[in-house]
Specification:
75% helix; mainly alpha; Amino acid/polyamine transporter I
Length: 455
């Protein structure tokens, strides 16, 4: 018998989940490489990269207020666009999750290697994935306590770098703003959107949030503000306290090298702890998100029913947690460059935002019973604006990503085509067992209805 997921995430836990998901390896590991591409304008690029996240938050607030259930993004696209698109976009979400876990795990290993020379980078990366797979298997309640603790330490580490650093800015390091031209600057904006990908996670675990119709919009707004301030301050101090060209050659741990120019070693160590915790909070949150995405697949018979099994002791989806842990380990073993992992996330996130925005826009007509019970509703103008703006901006960033690295774009497209092929194979397979997958996916499942009735 399948168990029920517990609603145990509070507003504080939800904010910690989002911020911990968003602020991960990118602000520490990717920043040196991006600084080498665009120079002192790095902090401007990060500030501008909030725009797609802001536009996405408009449709996410509508979705969270109307359909606060597990796998909401997958459900809404499946029901209101098409079953095939829903499944393929869900695959895109998992690709994004796995790519981020791989990037963060490698970043974590490189930071640990600073303090434990000679440690196996591969062993360290695999070990951190296994550890947080176990944490998530033990239950969301344990997950929330761990997440909140690491979130607080993460913020402390970032503030130790940013606040003192603001008093050690060298104006000569901040000019010229665009030494490599506007083309590189725009490319960095596109890659930096990776840093905001975590905002889509909140609706995916909505089925485990207390009072979700009120909590989700508040969590998104609070988290957006916190992350914007931290990103802008962090990148401004990074390019303002040391020559960007030199910092970009130091690799993922360049933040620590820059910090040593104005902080004592014990505070630099605290920053390193903050960086490491940023990476661990990301892996922690992603494991939760990936397992719930696969859980939604199983509920809809896109995966075999065994994947929807809930652990009787911890009330967690144990099979999908195991699956995503194993897939993450395989992804890490490929050891691709951090920039390629990041672009995979950008491609997936932009597609998800495009189709997610369209699906939410169609909700009043496609799911009127659900939409009419929403805690709040946008006016027709804002519904149309949020959809058009999100689709336009996300589409442009997807294109910029392709221009930055078309080979990675081809790999991503190939995986999407695999998803299409799998859909047709699975549909034919379950049809032989008397199940019409298209018809089944066009209905809101019994588990989803049960979650809505609890609100």
């Amino acid at each position: 018998m399948q168990g029920k997921l517990q609603r145990s995430l509070s507003l504080g836990g939800s904010v910690a989940l989002i911020v911990g998901m968003v602020i991960g390896a990118s602000i520490f590991v990717l920043v040196p490489a991006l600084a080498g591409m665009t120079g002192p304008s790095l902090y401007i690029a990060y500030a501008v990269s909030v725009i797609p996240a802001l536009l996405a938050s408009l449709y996410l607030m509508q979705l969270g207020g109307a359909l606060p259930v597990t796998g909401a993004g997958y459900i809404i696209i499946t029901r209101l666009i098409s079953p095939m698109v829903g499944v393929v976009m869900s695959l895109a979400a998992v690709i994004s999750i796995i790519s981020t876990i791989c990037l963060v795990a490698w970043g974590f290993a490189q930071y640990i290697a600073v303090y434990i020379p000679g440690i196996s980078l591969m062993g360290c990366a695999v070990g951190i994935i296994i550890f947080f797979g176990l944490i998530n298997w033990m239950g969301v309640k344990i997950f929330e306590w761990v997440q909140v603790l690491m979130f607080l330490l993460l913020i402390a580490g970032m503030l130790i770098f940013a606040i003192p650093g603001l008093f050690h800015i060298h104006p000569e390091y901040l000019v010229p703003l665009f030494p490599n031209g506007m083309g590189k600057f725009i490319t960095v904006i596109a890659v930096a959107t990776f840093s905001w990908a975590g905002f889509i996670c909140i609706t995916e675990v909505a089925g485990e949030i207390k009072n979700p119709k009120k909590t989700i919009p508040l969590a998104i707004i609070i988290s957006l503000f916190i992350v914007l301030v931290l990103y802008t301050a962090q990148t401004y101090v990074f390019v303002g306290t040391a020559p960007w060209a030199e910092s970009s050659k130091l690799g993922p741990t360049a933040v620590l090298v820059n910090a040593r120019t104005f902080l004592p070693e014990w505070l630099v160590t605290m920053i390193a702890v903050g960086a490491i915790l940023a990476m661990t909070t990301t892996i922690n949150a992603l494991m939760l998100l990936a397992a719930r995405e696969a859980l939604a697949w199983s509920r809809d018979q896109v995966l075999p029913i065994v994947f929807s099994r809930i652990n009787k002791r911890f009330n967690t989806p144990e099979v999908t947690i195991l699956l995503m842990t194993l897939v993450s380990i395989i992804g890490v073993s490929f050891a691709a460059s951090l920039e390629k992992y990041a672009l995979m996330v950008v491609f997936a996130t932009m597609l998800l935002q495009i189709f997610g925005a369209i699906a939410v826009w169609r909700m009043p007509k496609g799911m009127p019973d659900v939409y009419n019970k929403a805690l709040f509703k946008f006016s027709p103008f804002w519904r149309h604006f949020s959809m058009i703006a999100c689709v336009a901006v996300s589409g442009l960033l997807f294109l910029f990503g392709w221009l930055a690295d078309y080979k990675t774009g081809i790999v991503f497209t190939g995986l999407m085509l695999f998803g299409v092929v799998y859909w047709f194979w699975r549909r034919a397979y379950v049809k032989k067992q008397g199940v019409e997958l298209d018809s089944s996916l066009l209905k809101v499942g019994q588990e989803t209805l049960a979650e809505l009735e609890e609100l």
